[in-house]
Design a protein that fits this description.
Blueprint lengths: L4 E3 L6 E3 L3 E8 L19 E3 L16 E3 L4 E5 L20 E5 L4 E5 L81 E3 L6 E3 L7 E2 L17 E2 L9 E2 L21 E2 L2 E2 L11 E7 L6 E3 L3 E6 L2 E6 L3 E4 L1
Parallel strand pairs: 11-12
Antiparallel strand pairs: 1-2, 3-4, 3-5, 3-16, 6-7, 6-20, 7-8, 9-10, 12-13, 14-15, 16-19, 17-20, 18-19
Length: about 325
């Protein structure tokens, strides 16, 4: 492996840059909400964190930062959020995994995508997810959300049978389960987790809210960018009014909100791939300013001088040469 060199400012000569600590935060793509009546909210992408002593997903311990050598190549693949189906009566789609890897250390950090929300009268789609998607609601039977993964995130909500309030369940977040549907109240997405890896506290990876029909108040996404659930606001805005769900926020891996009522176009709200989709994932790297090589590919955002550290934020695929 090659050694980089750092020119010293107090006279001639140079010294090789030695190994240094690289801290990271990795989040998978969020799942989308179901495009169906009383649909479940999408789960957030998995959340793994090695910065300082901060909590990682599912309230697990901080992971171990990497020690890298100069010119080690770090490869980043960002997981896209799950796309919301344009046609009605469909479950949500899962988000894609985000990975951080280097051949030099034979190490890969993978955060699974969040689970998609379940459609009406259905469980959330089965799979392995960072955070689970919420189930759809059913009049006669209860339905289950999917589970999150160890050290990544929490579970989507389960719905009990109910013909009165008709609430889809919410998606899980990095630090809490999504609310269960089928009962009165709201079905809010599970909360995300806060990190100060970029220099200030930012909460990410919230679950998507469940879709509501005939409820008195709207569900909201989990803190950290989770999308608000859609609602048939018959009791709020007037007969026939349908409010579209909100997508999960990009660069947080948050889940999208579930639909409440949809038939292609209701009251001017056209189903499209942005309503209720999951937020894209993110990778954030942090290292001492003196160790930063300045060599990246892709289009990351680079901030130097963050308490003596450089912070690189990847919202798209790329590499960093240590």
């Amino acid at each position: 492996m090659a050694f980089g060199y750092q020119v010293l400012g107090f006279g001639g000569g140079s010294l090789p840059r030695g190994p240094y600590v690289l801290e990271w935060l990795v989040i998978g793509g969020g799942g989308s909400g179901a495009s169906d009546v009383r649909g479940g909210g999408g789960g957030a992408g998995g959340y793994r964190n090695s910065f300082a002593s901060e909590t990682s997903g599912r309230n697990s311990a901080t992971e171990t930062p990497w020690t890298v050598d100069p010119d080690d190549t770090i490869t980043i693949t960002i997981g896209a959020g799950g796309v919301c189906n344009q046609s009605a009566s469909n479950p949500g789609n899962s988000g894609a995994s985000t990975t951080l890897e280097t051949d030099a250390l034979q190490t890969t950090v993978e955060c699974y995508g969040g689970g998609g929300g379940g459609k009406y009268n259905s469980n959330a789609p089965a799979g392995t997810y960072g955070c689970g998607g919420g189930s759809g609601q059913g009049n006669a039977s209860g339905y289950t959300g999917t589970d999150g993964s160890a050290a990544q995130g929490f579970d989507g909500g389960d719905a009990s049978a109910s013909s009165t309030y008709n609430l889809g369940s919410a998606g899980g977040g990095a630090s809490a389960n999504g609310d269960g549907g089928g009962v009165s109240g709201t079905t809010n997405g599970g909360a995300g987790l806060s990190s100060s890896i970029t220099g200030g506290a930012v909460t990410r990876a919230g679950g998507g809210g469940g879709g509501e029909y005939g409820a008195s108040s709207p569900s909201v996404g989990g803190t950290g960018g989770g999308g608000k659930g859609g609602e048939n606001a018959y009791w709020i805005e007037g007969a026939g009014t349908v409010i579209a769900p909100v997508q999960g926020t990009d660069e947080t891996g948050s889940g999208g909100g579930g639909w409440s009522e949809c038939s292609g176009n209701e009251s001017g709200n056209t189903l499209n791939v942005t309503n209720g989709r999951g937020g894209n994932g993110v990778v954030i790297l942090r290292m001492p300013d003196a160790s930063y090589s300045g060599t990246t590919t892709g289009s990351p955002t680079v901030a130097t001088g963050v308490s003596g550290n450089t912070v690189i934020t990847f919202s798209d695929d790329g590499t960093y040469s240590a």
